[in-house]
Amino acid sequence: MEITRFAPSPNGSLHLGHAYAAIVAHDIAMARGGQFIVRLEDIDGARSRPELATEFAEDLAWLGLEWDAVPAQSTRLASYADAAERLRAAGVLYPCTCTRAEIAAAATVHGPEGPVYPGTCRGRSVDPTGAAWRLDVAKAMELAGPLSWEDELASIQRARPDLLGDVVLVRKDAPASYHLAATLDDAADGVTLVTRGRDLFAASHVHRLLQHLLDLPVPRWHHNPLLLDESGEKLAKRRGSTSLADRRKAGEDGAALAQALREQRFPAGISLG
Ligand code: GLU
């Protein structure tokens, strides 16, 4: 059975881009007689606003979607710690105490998600207390050998986790980074098709490697195109994209909006990238 997902982080209200991604994921599951699940990615301590869980559920229901809720990430911390321990035991994690500013100053390569970590702490002896833990991607790729993965829209990909460099898997302030938590959760939730926006395409290279290292089942992916604003930038709440909650509270018809998004009829100034 096909299982798709929508995994919002409660650090800001949902906007049209989220609605589009949720509708795509929902509709694929329904068309295939599958299941659509919603998971709250709420381990971003300082930025998480628990009250948004209710708002998100109201938004999705307003759009006319039905879903099965699975446990939020904050209830799964033990599984992240276990996986990190396995990766440490396999010798593919190292502690890192670099600050963002130090990384920005030392980085020479810019990857799909910004400066690529220049490997400053790799091979150094670093006090692990309070450190972040990074994936030694070269070592992990050597252990894994060549890997590939399949995106429904972009076809077969050779895994290139090196494009993102030695990503953080255990944060200084949280027991997992997005990469580790989402990969483990998609496996635990039985997700067969990882549905999300194209902005996370590069992350899937890393997730494929983690699946190998942690003996997890390998899903397929569907990275939907993003909704862009007038300046060609992806929609973002901080740039003032109207939230779904604001539209809902203003009395807009959610089912009609969902239908317009399905038919790619977007509000003025918004286009599909
Ligand atoms: N939690 C992420 C976000 O809200 C999405 C992660 C995913 O779909 O894998 O941007």
UniProtKB/TrEMBL annotation:
MF term (GO), any: ligase activity
Top-level lineage group: Bacteria
Domain Glutamyl/glutaminyl-tRNA synthetase class Ib catalytic: 4-252
Database matches in InterPro entries: aa-tRNA-synth_I_CS, Glu/Gln-tRNA-synth, Glu/Gln-tRNA-synth_Ib_cat-dom, GluQ/Sye, Rossmann-like_a/b/a_fold
EC number assigned by the record: 6.1.1.-
Signal sequence coordinates: none
Keyword annotations of the record: Aminoacyl-tRNA synthetase, ATP-binding, Ligase, Metal-binding, Nucleotide-binding, Protein biosynthesis, Zinc
Enzyme class: ligase
Sequence similarity: Belongs to the class-I aminoacyl-tRNA synthetase family.
Protein name: tRNA glutamyl-Q(34) synthetase GluQRS
Classification lineage: Bacteria, Pseudomonadati, Pseudomonadota, Alphaproteobacteria, Sphingomonadales
